[in-house]
Design a protein that fits this description.
It is built from 3 helices and 15 strands. With 198 residues, it is α+β, with helices and mostly antiparallel strands. The protein has a 7-stranded antiparallel sheet with strand order 1-2-13-10-15-8-5. Strands 9-14-11-12 form a 4-stranded antiparallel sheet.
Length: 198
């Protein structure tokens, strides 16, 4: 575990965001990525945007504590029980960040056409000032941030294989984020977003 790599705190207004470039070293990240591809119960839900329903442009899965469903964009997901791999990752994140989580939402971006549009992780079941711990495995993707009211407050980060992005404080109240589509040839990426459902 490369906990000795220095985390980077992003200097942004109304936000508390910390980036750990090598939370897992390459060998560990490669192994976890391969296990996630094989072991996770991936699904593709339909999503309704502006009155039109279409397949969500990525695969998803929810794991977590029993009785803690998660709803977003008119989708309600029931959690699968924690498996050994996810429990181990959860423990390591909680140990490093000193935060507690009940649930992990997994996203699989199969290529550059798969994406996640502008949004905040501010659903009511996450409570006030939710903490989101986002792990990335596989192909690097650009993660974009923009402030809700400050027009020139924007940031782009390339999320590396094995990296952790921690969003805390008032971030979700003041900022939106997305993983945009890209026309570049790009491989598969798996993202794990740990959160605490109240």
């Amino acid at each position: 575990m490369l906990f000795n790599t220095e985390p980077l705190t992003l200097s942004l207004p109304d936000a508390e965001i910390i980036y750990y470039p090598q939370f897992f070293d390459k060998e560990q990240a490669d192994q976890i990525y391969a296990e996630l591809l094989q072991e996770i119960a991936w699904q593709q839900d339909n999503i309704t945007v502006f009155g039109k329903t279409h397949p969500q442009p990525r695969l998803t899965a929810l794991y977590g504590n029993e009785g803690k469903p998660y709803s977003y964009s008119n989708i309600t997901m029931q959690p699968n029980p924690w498996n050994t791999l996810l429990q181990k990752i959860k423990y390591l994140i909680e140990f490093r960040t000193e935060c507690q989580f009940t649930t992990v939402l997994l996203n699989q971006y199969r290529d550059g056409k798969d994406s996640n549009g502008w949004h905040s992780d501010n659903e009511k079941e996450l409570g006030t000032n939710p903490i989101i711990a986002s792990l990335s495995f596989g192909a690097e993707r650009v993660f974009q941030l923009k402030h809700n009211t400050i027009a020139d407050a924007k940031k782009s980060i390339v999320l590396e294989h094995g990296s952790l992005l921690l969003m805390k404080g008032s971030t979700q109240h003041f900022w939106k984020h997305q993983i945009p589509k890209t026309t570049k040839p790009i491989g598969n990426r798996i993202n794990l977003t740990f959160r605490s459902i109240k």
